[in-house]
Amino acid sequence: MLSTSTDTVSDRLSRVAYLLHEFESVAIGSHLLYLSTCNSSLAVIHEFDPWFNFRAAQYLHDNGWKAFVNWFDHKVWYPLGRPVGTTIYPGMQVIAVWLTKSWLPVWFGVKKYLGMSIPKNVLVKGAKRVSKSLSSPFMSMVASSMSKVGMKWVEMSLNDVCCLIPAWFGALTTVTTGLIALECSARFHCGVGSQFGTILDEFPLLGHYLRKVGDPIRYILKKYSGLDAGGVRVSSSSALQPASLLSMTATMFFMSTIPAHIMRSVGGGYDNESVAVFAMTLVFYLWTRSLRGDGKGADVDINPSEDNVGYRIRQKEDVGFSLSTRTITAAFWGALTGVAYFNMAAAWGGYTFVINLVGVHAAALVILGRHSSKLHAAYSAFYIVGTTLATRVPVVGLTPIKSLEQMGPMLVFFVLQLLEYCERVRTRDNLTRAQTLLLRIRLAALFGVVGTATVMSLYPSGHFGPISARVRGLFVPHTKTGNPLVDSVAEHQAAKEGTYEQYLGVVAKFAHIGLGMIALAFTNDASSFLVVYGLAAYYFSHKMVRLILLTAPIGSILVGMVIGRVLGFCVEGVCGFHLDIWEIFGTAIVDVHNEPKDEPPAEVKSKRAKSNGAKKTKEKSSEKEKGKPKNEQPKSSIVDNIAVNVLLRCAWAYLAYYLYTEAQPEMKGFGEFSDRMAVAMSHPTILFKGNTRSGGEVLVDDYREAYWWLRDNTPEDARIMAWWDYGYQITGIANRTTIADGNTWNHEHIALLGRALTSPLKEGHRIARHLADYVLLWTGGGGDDLAKSPHLARIANSVYRDMCPNDPTCSRFSMPGGRPSQMMRNSLLYRLHSHQLVEGVEADKNRFKEVYRTKYGKVRIYKILSVSKESKEWVKKNKMQNCDAGGWFCPGNYPPGLQKVLKEKKDFAQLEDFNRGASDEEYQKQYFENLNDPAKARRRAKKDTAKEVEPDRPDEREVKIEAKPGRPTKEEIRDINRKWVDNEITNALFDVVRSNDLNRLALIAEAQELLLHSRSKDGRGPMWWAHEFGRKDIIEALKDLGVSDKLMDGDGILPADLADDHDEF
């Protein structure tokens, strides 16, 4: 092995350059994959939440940080308003504005000056002219300097930057995930905390026997097969082995293509997670890096002994209250982890997952016997720096020291202080085991008394914040939270069977193998984090499908490390010895014996000298007896046999070839699968392609057209009533006032909106005329407002209990047999939704006037007649910011005209509202009873509606279908299943299923059976709808015709999963 005592700057640069080359090749590929949407749909913001994020970024861009923090938006949550500055995680907006105003103009200007290509959709300006208009003195100086050397100032629009941020940060996440794999698979030095072994190697008592069994096995594997078997000791303090580099590369490949990551990284998906996942993986990388220490193993024995009371010594240089280089270095990296955590806290509410995961890992290391000064320094620096910075984020504030969700990490922090103090005193005073135990008990008792007294004094005052309904839902046995508003969101539901295969692909099949491999053979202080992360990510993603994105990094790492280890074994098996990548590329490797060593404390030095003296005496006597040098290894006939050696290398080469050929089809299939998923996820729901009756392709832009119509044809102060899903798009595109949006912070206000929409038309109008000027409805079938309306009724009933007395799930408001119940049929929403589309359904012309219907009927807009001018003027005169002290909850003020209906409400007491003293046990009991026994709730609803008039059947839409007799082929079925579009065919099929018309279904099958496999934009088709409406005859008919019931829609939901939802109604 090449060893030198110096490590030049050029050597270090060559290392960095090599790694950057690896990162670049994967990052560029992933960046192009994430840009599929921008290539096909131009720079269009997707979905709902991204429109609010873009609008907030625009406000910050135009008005600056001070105005942004104090921004109270009166165009949303009418008439309450929303304090945006104190309720938003602003990290993503700050990044977008910084890129637009500072980084990109300079970066593109430099590239243009050097003759490199720059994007076409940019604006080139003179740097000198720009320097005079910039508000920042620093950027003005930069622009002025650019003008002096002839550079241009090249600007990209904020819209384009926001569209591209998910792709850019998706590529960066790929790199940081690869770095985690590298850190957890490489052995950068030979300290105790860096040696590989089983996860229980350091566990008291048990670990001692596991090491005795495991070390010889690993030694034999290393000696006779060339395997790098985890815990084998090496002399190099800085080595990059093939297994580590291959693990990093494989991890980056999977992370760049895995659908669970793509879904939050496609261009246009300007959502918090697109930035937060990068921040999260950066925190995890820096945390694992902090557990490495300073990279020097000289002061840590590679075969650690036990001290005077039987404790295994992990860091001999930290004795008493002295600080070693390793501990200081761990604190430095821990502080950097805290800074990265600040970025996470500013970007996404999921920061609580990050700090809790790091806290759990630190606690696990203590329990497993891996506590050290390095761990204490790293976690303490991380917690202090991270928590201090996080409190500077307005929306976070003092939550880290008040919320029950973050009490765990704080407890770990204090426990580590207690343990470290005891260890320092023990090593300083040379305490016995009994004395050490007594010291720990005394300090723990004192800590317990002080902590209990503090909690008891603060609890009655409401100091501790509650656990949110979403978090609570992760720890209850059922899949519902007790809050119908939260339960109405599809992504808050539990993961279904097949979800992991859909979003993880081949990674789901092999991730558990990587987890077991690390736990049984490749665990050290850093890699043990992967075990904790893997278990936590699986649990939480199983409870809430939205959190499937958390599994993308850990799944990629686990599978990447399996592939890296196996290929590394093969490479070293073929070579017959351990490889060091630095050596191969001619860089210097610093031998442990040539490194300058930190001088240990006197006590350790004297003890070590005595111990070494005894060892040397014993070694000399042994050498004299054996008559050979002490370093000469016993010869092995197996190793020295050339024929056996050659056969062994050939066997490794054949194994590598066999694994490669066997993996090729699987990897190719995964790549094609990821490409298809990327294309499907890249299509914005606000803009999509559909097929006409003649087979032509059209661009369906109904939603934006409706918002543009509002922008161009309504007064600027017009108020739009729509379900909260669309609020962000209405304010972001139409720039009009909305009643509610996706923030969903005020349950009672959303319930009022739900009551207006689901009440009888006249009663709904009495509410709407005081709140809005127009009503906007989605009416295109599939997941339109009619399909969502049962959830609206539930939410309304949770506050206005007289809507569905003694029925928390509001089973009377449903579509039994595919036909609307009388309560639904009388509702404002149904009357406007089906106005002149269903026979006998008409909107009251004295109360509502249809003013716009989009080209393909996806959106309908009605003008509210007899609007209360008094209420509108009252709100204008009383625009007061009525919010709590934290600026989060703003009950606001309603006009006098709504006071009558508001007196009927009962504030919804959620299960987590223990600080309010409110209780609604009976409601919660009935709510869960109905969910657990939907048949009983349905029977009760039937009794209540027994005298209702049977509603008319919806009209049948005539769709001309080209006759193509014969059974479709498997290839044709596969192709049509991949095309998710809303068109006349899917609308007609929806009507057929909803009206339970077997005759029309038979006619369609006879004309062109392939059409029965059609799927709408949300991934659902006739089989889903048949289960949703309880059409057993149609289900059987579709099965007989070969329509699969094993496919999943866009949310990972199987057709059979919808049967339960139907039973609830």
Automatic annotation (TrEMBL):
GO terms for molecular function: dolichyl-diphosphooligosaccharide-protein glycotransferase activity; metal ion binding. It comes from Thalassiosira oceanica (Marine diatom). Belongs to the STT3 family. This is dolichyl-diphosphooligosaccharide--protein glycotransferase. Residues 607-618 have a biased composition (Basic residues). Residues 596-634, 934-956 are annotated as: Disordered. Its EC number is 2.4.99.18. The keyword Calcium does not apply. Its cofactor is Mn(2+); Mg(2+). It is found in: Endomembrane system. It catalyses: a di-trans,poly-cis-dolichyl diphosphooligosaccharide + L-asparaginyl-[protein] = N(4)-(oligosaccharide-(1->4)-N-acetyl-beta-D-glucosaminyl-(1->4)-N-acetyl-beta-D-glucosaminyl)-L-asparaginyl-[protein] + a di-trans,poly-cis-dolichyl diphosphate + H(+).
